[in-house]
Amino acid sequence: MAETGADRRWPRQVYGVGSEPDPRFSFANERTFLAWVRTALGFVAAGVALAAVGRLGAGLDVEARVAALLLVLAGMVSGVGALARWIRNERALRLDEPLPSSALLLVVTGIVVLAAAVALVVVTFA
What we know:
By secondary structure, this protein is mostly helical.
């Protein structure tokens, strides 16, 4: 027996359950995912830029590396979290369940606050 269009879609853990939601909700979920991916790319770019600038300045090597590392980490967490969040939300839409909460906001905010604290130390004491 031939598979239907829904049966061939990936990931199966998303498209293999429930029924098709209103396309507007799926598109909104996708736009949110893409916004998180853009944010992740911004964090990674900021971390790389900070690392490059840190190499130019004398005495900022360790602090700049720590802040850059935290920003790149925020980018990694945002990227992976974006996919996990999209999957959970899309499954909930297909199963007509409430949208799940996400710790992604708290984790990324914590990492950014740590990077800002390092930057504050650098700006204040450098």
